[in-house]
Amino acid sequence: METRKYTSEDIITLSVIQKALENIAEEMGIVLRRASFSPNCKERLDFSCAIFNKNAELVAQAEHIPVHIGAMFSAISSILDEFPLETIKPGDIIILNSPYYGGTHLPDITFLMPVFIDEQLAFFVNNRAHHADIGGSVPGSMPGISSELYEEGLIIPPIKLYNEGKEVTDVMNLILSNVRVKTERLGDFRAQRAALLRGEERLRELSQKYGLDFLLDAVNKLMNISEKSFQEELNKIPDGTYQYEDFLDSNGITSDLVKICVKITKTFNKILISFNGTDPVQEGNVNAPHSVVYSCVYFVFRALTDSSIMTNAGLFRNIEIEIPENSMLNPQNPSAVSSGNVETSQRLVDVILGALAQSLNQIPAASQGTMNNVTIGSKKAKNAFTYYETIGGGAGASGVKNGTSAIHSHMTNTLNTPIEALELTYPLRVKEYSIRKNSGGEGRYKGGNGIIRAIECLVDSIVSLQSERRTKPPYGLHGGKPGKTGENFKINIKGEVQKLPGRATVEFYAGETLVVKTPGGGGYKLSENSAD
Questions:
Q1: For residues 483 and 55, what is the distance between their CA atoms, to the nearest angstrom?
Q2: Residues in a beta bridge with 166
Q3: 209 beta partners
Q4: Alpha helix ranges (H) inside 9-135
Q5: Contact predicate 351/474, CB 8 Å
């Protein structure tokens, strides 16, 4: 059939192609969800899908998890360093989770597959999913306290899991021999592969419709359009230098506050984000690999720009990021990082937005600033299970409305695990799931309220917590009050209450209950009853 001809300047056709590419990424996510075994993927949607070109440039993404998407740039570049393009064959799938090869933390496992069209390597399809366990010292692979990467799970450098379409049995067996709940892990791995195969199929169909040369040319033009559009958006930020700092409650091992600094320099249509002054590498697990830092920066500027601008590599060409050596934002192997992906990322967003609030009115007060990570696993291997969840909280108020209550914000975009699914799958019982009233910061516009989640363990279990904003509250803006800090508790079978720190791994006996009260968002502007 003759390929339809289009003029290269046809912006309507370019827009149709961009939407088609985005829909392919979304469809990949639908396949992954439906094929997955774990509630973490099937219910919470803790995964992300995207398409890249052979130069490791983002072509399109689904609206999934911000901390996954931005870090994929680094992962794909690392894979291509280990596997040159000429060595990659149709049907190959390369995986990794190492934070020192572009990963985030070890439970997040990246799958990458080439897409060959007319015997030419044209694209890569990839996804990243959080697995509820990848081995390590505790069930769930998210220890409250860890000082080395080895404690956090099996470390996977770039390696082929599928070779020309055939599963590499030795590699799969090695992985499954180091994780808990093997059937669930295997099911999610195969769901990730199924999503890639669907992406490959749809890209070939798209190429057949438009012709490969035209499609690749259109992708380049779309990136250039995004670059130009982003430059226009940057002109809304006054030239100047803006600085801010905020703190993590601790590194999990010592009680000292951990400082994160940012200095933003805007000049014409370029922007430099420098994290000089941030504290050095930490003994605990709050260190964030550079891939996470990139994710946070990209998220903020994607969120602040016109939503009609197409999200691809062109959007980020005018952003320069400077991360100091040997800082907690550029750790060296084998520093622990499990909390860096989920907690430090939230504080990075807080400091970037805090700096930009000095020049932009649309910046909201701080949201809850934590993902409130909870992992619960069996104490005995005989009846192994691993449950993982992040719990929402209050969003920061803005200059036009109150913050939203009981919602995931910023670097996470997951759903909750419904009570019915949680209780059906795990030996757990939800005793309370409610909005934490009056936890949002006061102001003319109030911060959103947090959540109370109480879970009873029906068998002896190991509970690990990674949470923040337990001592330093989410900030308000322009006279608005901060949100209320979060709290964690253990209630034993006698009804005695024990307060737990933000990061901890604790034994729970059958009948004991974990209570997590999440922070509220910050308020915005002095209240109407106060003097302006």
A1: 44
A2: 163
A3: none
A4: 11-35, 39-42, 66-69, 72-82
A5: no
